[in-house]
Design goal:
alpha/beta; Rossmann fold; Helicase, Ruva Protein, domain 3; ATP-binding
């Protein structure tokens, strides 16, 4: 038989489900399993993501079976149902094996009872060991791999469904987790940039601070695991970017992701914050649960809306608002990746958050030399950059302002049928940009001494 391509998980899944089928048949027939495991963990170390996962993790047989039970409805939806029906000597229900049926697809979905029956049968100690696989301390829960749904009040504790997180289903089947779609379940959008570090013009000190941040992104795994610091340091890294609009906060976040191979997600605060009690916490939980163990960078722009100063408690709304902030603080501290908060003013951020930041980086308004460098980087090649940039650098504009001015001036130039920006288009662009911010335009080039 032809082997699948090395990058595919198919060979390992075929072998794994063969083990699961034999286990189901043996248990239903009441056959005793050998103490050393007559059914063994089988896998191919073929370079596939699943093969590499099993080689690195080396899960014991009970964990292996639990992973397969959680995967089966997604990969072979009829496997459990068919094997149970075939193996049964009698018609009707078989309550020992548990399971529930999905209302829409009618697929048999395994429960904790299913896992306990297959792995332990009537052995009480064995069943207790299975129950421990669903504990919050187990790596299944810590890393968000799978969970046991909470049982209804009064129902058997193992009667909840075994649910594998969507990203783990994708990793163990497709080989890589797909980006979640933007929505209530994931209120964040992926952002990127076509620019490089050379396009980011900042003070030398700020560049050094950003380089230190990049070091954490690149080496935190080595620090935590190889150096054994996981038990001594808090997970993740929290940093505040503060400074006027247009000074490079968002661009820095995207460049960090680009340079280190990490995806950057900008959190949509309008989708997170809700006027309904409890909804903000729910939205935040969905966001952080999806992002856990993904090596993502979470970017909270205009973070004051969530991380602002707590209010004095005057009514129930204030009390719940403060609870939301406390909950957010907890989730940020538990997150194992990089969280970047961006704010125009450091003073707007609650002190409880500031004390917990690993770094606070100020993005100052660009000085004349920096504005000159930004103009030279941004103006089109066919423009007389040296002459034009030297004049325009006198105007106090941020990097974001300059980009907007160049776009306006370039379009005005094209509309006139010319191929190079002249001073008049650039000045009109500056006027429009300042008026947009409610400022008065003064042509500094016409003033005495210009």
């Amino acid at each position: 038989m032809n082997q699948p391509a090395p990058c595919s998980n198919a060979a390992n899944l075929d072998a794994a489900f063969d083990v699961l089928v034999r286990l189901i048949r043996a248990r239903i027939k009441g056959e005793e399993l050998a103490p050393d495991g007559e059914l063994r963990l089988t896998f191919f170390d073929d370079g596939s993501p699943l093969g590499t996962f099993i080689r690195d993790r080396q899960p014991p047989f009970d964990e292996y079976v639990l992973l397969l039970l959680a995967l089966a409805p997604h990969v072979r939806p009829t496997l459990l149902d068919n094997e149970i029906r075939t193996a049964l000597a009698r018609e009707g229900d078989f309550p020992e094996i548990g399971g529930v049926r999905d209302e829409a697809s009618r697929t048999f979905l395994p429960t904790g009872e299913t896992a306990a029956f297959l792995l332990a049968g009537d052995n009480l100690d064995g069943r207790f060991e299975v129950q421990q696989l669903f504990s919050p301390e187990h790596w299944f829960a810590r890393e968000g791999v799978l969970l046991l749904e909470e049982a209804r009040d009064g129902a058997p504790i193992l009667s909840g469904r075994i649910v594998m997180a969507r990203d783990w289903v994708e990793r163990l089947t497709l080989g890589t987790a797909q980006a979640p779609a933007f929505g209530a379940g994931f209120p964040a959008r992926r952002i990127g940039t076509a620019l490089d570090w050379d396009d980011l013009i900042l003070e030398t000190e700020v560049q050094q601070r950003i380089a230190e941040l990049e070091q954490w992104v690149r080496h935190h795994r080595t620090l935590m695991h190889d150096w054994g610091m996981a038990g001594r340091l808090r997970p993740g890294y929290r940093v505040l970017f503060h400074g006027p609009p247009g000074t490079g906060k968002t661009l820095t976040a995207t460049l960090l992701g680009k340079a280190t191979g990490r995806e950057v997600y900008r959190v949509d605060l309008s989708s997170v914050v809700s006027k309904y009690i409890g909804e903000t916490e729910k939205n935040l939980a969905a966001l952080f649960d999806q992002a856990r163990n993904r090596e993502w960078i979470l970017f909270f722009d205009e973070a004051d809306a969530l991380f602002g100063k707590r209010t004095s408690v005057k009514d129930a709304h204030d009390r719940y608002a403060n609870q939301e902030i406390s909950y957010l603080l907890q989730r940020v501290e538990e997150f194992d990746g990089l969280v970047i908060l961006a704010s125009n003013f450091r003073a707007n951020i609650d002190e409880a958050f500031l004390r917990r930041f690993n770094a606070i980086i100020r993005f100052p308004f660009p000085a004349v030399d920096e504005r000159l460098a930004i103009w030279n980087r941004t103006l089109p090649a066919q423009t007389d950059r040296e002459c034009l940039a030297g004049q325009l650098a006198r105007f106090e504009l941020s990097g974001g302002n300059i980009v907007n001015v160049v776009q306006f001036a370039a379009l005005a130039t094209i509309a006139k049928g010319r191929n190079a920006i002249h001073l008049d288009e650039a000045l009109l662009g500056i006027q429009r940009e300042l008026e947009k911010e409610g400022k008065v335009f003064r042509n500094l080039l016409e003033e005495p001494g210009a």
